[in-house]
What does this fold into?
Amino acid sequence: MDCRTCEAMVDAYVDGELSARDSAAFEAALATCPDCRRRLEAARDLSSLLRGLPIDPAPDLLRARIERDLRAIAGRPRERLRWAAIAAGLILALGLGWLGGALTGQGGRHTDEVIAGYLRVAMAETPVDVASSDRHTVKPWFAGRVDYAPPVHDLTAEGFPLLGGRLDFVDGRKVAVLVYRRNQHRLALTLWPAEAGGNTSPDIVERDGFALARWRHGGFEMRAVSDLAPGEMGAFAKALDKALDAGG
Amino acid sequence: MGRMSDAPKPDGRTLERFRATVLPHLDSAYGFARWLTRDPVVAQDLAQESLLRALRYFHAFRGEEARPWLLRIVRNTWADLRVRQGAEPLPLEAAENRAAGGPDPEQTALASDRRRHVAAALAALPVEVREVLVLRELEDLSYKQIAAVLDLPIGTVMSRLARAREKLAAELQGRLGRRDHGLSDL
It folds into this structure.
């Protein structure tokens, strides 16, 4: 094999596209050709550089969008549902009771604000305004930004690492939102001081692949939204309550 | 691929088959869309549109390999979107030149910086060589599969791949200011 043939085979060899016989011939030719050995080395290096690039999996919210589309197609062939429609559907479903006044003494229209807040968290490239798993960084960040001191706990040990915090508006009032992660899912916890009443156990509903929880604990109204399974949402509420009870 | 109007409305069983066959390749579809569009938000729209289109064409799916089949739809959907949005070759060139700006070549010491350079160099390549490299190195497709995705003869795939590697090596050397043979000490 002359060097030109050998050179032409480098790529196909690296790509595993040579037959066993051609591979053997190429390897034999390499032994006598330092130039082609160098070419081979460079081709392998380039390949491993590319293969070392991080791969981003499809975002959960893209999955949720497609899931929603598939369901819509199964039922109604021509409908194209977009984010606004997803949010609207959730709000409609939730308007029937989630966040209802009976438990909290507050109007159901918070619902759309909480959901919209979650969509911002879930869709944004940077879901948090302060990114830290350290409560001693996140908690002071809220000082002067909201008119109460939200309890901040990192729940990494329970499988819900704290990603950080952000601000949102519920009923015209600035509220604290803590963002947690569960595997590749994000969970947004909106919380504000309860007006009255003791602890309640979480009321968890599942709508269109989203789990929503509302409860009261340690003097705070809790609203959590995520694309987790309801059981996982329950585990989150339990872990949070335990952390609150353990102190501050 | 059939026209949209030829497609029967998918029934429950078709949807289940689609979920089991095509949906597992969503990560690949999104990843390819990321490298085609070079924009994570547009890539989500493209991936979503492609999956819907794949469902419409699914009645024509004959049990071939699902991943190249889906990637081909991503590629065609992207081409259609660009036509619809009136994209011209020139603005694309401009975008590529912008992407070529890249980070400061001084900071090549760290692995994450190196990856950033590699990603920027790949993103700066013209699309017809970029896509072939992404399919080969990131999606690990064979020449034959790449030929199917891009609807090209295998010989053309090979020559484009060779050109893509040359251009990428040159791009990287330009960014990193390394000597002109080999990349082993990157």
